[in-house]
């Protein structure tokens, strides 16, 4: 039998900052080390998990010094869950690191003067800010080291909660999550407890058996609740038992759906959503604009902060009522619909066709007529012919996914040469890359980081660009 290799330990690494994806970073003998479970200011011994040519990745195994910025996490699940990985830093410290993340990207990649970066806009609420949560059922609850060490036998290991980071089959049972407002915790716990009491089986991803798979809860600021329960098979009596229990115990549920997912993965958006009780949609309101949200619709997950973000976009765009605006990567058209009353016309482009259907429904719902929506890839749709048909844009709002814009889109933007551009991004690194590519024709006027997701490393940044007059 081969001998197990001794783990490599890097001694006394001082954590100096936060790198990409919120990873704590330090140096050991000049080599960069990314360290799990550490925060800036910690001095730690690191067990190396992966060795790469320019850096190591590891986890802290011993603390010589705890950072003075550390605070006691308020969530009992912090150690196991990993959902709010920055909860051990106070909110003001989180904001400092988010600001620095944007600053670094703009300085190093975009080569933009960081004096143009405004102080980050904090979140209106730092807990219970998400309107959508997804939970997973499992019959193999993740056990903490303390539980394993205690060796106490269990009646069962059924769980309803979140995936442990890095574990597709490790589900941390959740009793209280601080991310979604009431009645989210109550719905999740009650359904789990009812199913256990009724001996209804929980899904086992390895053995591919068990009935209950996933729970998706959406709650709007208008007080409507959508619940989607995903089952492995259509066991009619048991399915009915769960759905009747949920609808009787929670009259707040205005849309109750279920889905039968016999696949090996948990993805349900490609499956038929069956309405069991209530309405096909829930309605969210961002200021006076209403959005019908169906079971498959994408929507910004922090509604209150979406208003803060969109208000900043409006401020940056400084619309006078006469502009032709392109809203690229429009999703369900939410930015376009939010700004439509302030400009002449909005043209939205989005690759997900059902989202464009939602955008059209929502335009009609709000009696907004000065919008046109197109389904397709921006890089294919945004052409000279398109600009000829819809008129040259006075303002372009672009809100691409994390990967940023395709080089073809950047080239097209340079060609279209709209006088003003508002670039919204959830990834400062790719935004900075694109700003650099645009720099010969566009000057960055100002930038505003916005925090949409407290206790996580995620950060949104808005940049206002102005065409350089030749
Ligand atoms: C960050 S979201 C922004 C959504 C929307 N602007 C909002 O505020 O809710 C990015 C959107 O771009 C869409 N998308 C991603 N790649 C795309 C592409 N190549 N062409 C068009 N849309 C794309 C995604 O489906 C998603 O809806």
Give an overview of the whole structure.
It is a single chain. The protein folds into 3 domains: 62 residues, Beta Barrel (OB fold (Dihydrolipoamide Acetyltransferase, E2P)), CATH 2.40.50.140; 199 residues, Vaccinia Virus protein VP39 (Rossmann fold); 155 residues, Beta Barrel (OB fold (Dihydrolipoamide Acetyltransferase, E2P)), CATH 2.40.50. It has 470 residues and is α/β, with parallel strands linked by helices. The radius of gyration is 24 Å and the shape is globular. α2 runs parallel beside α12. A 7-stranded mixed beta sheet has the order 8-7-6-9-10-11-12, with helices on one face. The protein has a 7-stranded mixed beta sheet with strand order 17-16-15-18-19-21-20, sandwiched between helices. The longest helix is centred in the first third of the chain and has 20 residues. The chain contains 12 helices and 21 strands. β18, α11 and β19 form a beta-alpha-beta unit. S-adenosylmethionine binds next to α7 and β16.
